[in-house]
Amino acid sequence: MVNTEELQRTIAAAQQEVDSWDRRARLSAQSRPAGPKWPATLALWAALVLAVYAERDFVMGWFVPHDSSGTVEQLGEILRHAADDIETYRSHFGRLPEGLPIDFLNGIVSYERDDSVYVLETTYHDKLIRLRSDAAGPGRVEILPR
User: What confidence tens digit (pLDDT) does each residue in 76-115 have?
Assistant: First the structure.
């Protein structure tokens, strides 16, 4: 059989040992000075500066206004080239194509057609760039406010 007195003494000794560990841990935590917080703050600021530097072109776009005239002119050229391809298709097949002949322009340039007239449009920031054809062929590129 189990000796209850011996079991109680063993439990009491274990409890005293746990209590002394707990007391030592509390005293150690109280006597230890809190670590400086500046290394973590410095690391956070360094990471932020590094991220902003890595994306500096994107961030500068928020503060520096873009001169969009060159981009708008290039988009007008793209519309002219697309119109040339549409006119080539029309001269070969006698009708307007169902969609844009240049696949990669889908999603960038809007193409709407009637029996003999078509309209190509795209946008850039606050500008609408439009090329409207007539019976004689492609018209000229118009740049309109959006």
Answer: 999 999 999 999 999 999 889 999 888 888 888 999 998 8
The CA-CA-CA angle for residues 29, 32, 35, to 5°, reads: 110
Per residue in 64-75, pLDDT (tens digit) is 666 667 888 899
Cα(4)–Cα(70) distance, integer angstroms = 95
CB 105 within 8 A of CB 99: no
Query: How far from the centroid of its chain's Cα atoms is residue 72's Cα?
Result: 23
Cα separation, 129 vs 141, in Å, equals 7
Written as one string, the DSSP assignment of 27-81 is HHHHHSPPPPSHHHHHHHHHHHHHHHHHTHHHHHHHHSPP--HHHHHHHHHHHHH
Enter the tokens of residue 27. 């005293």
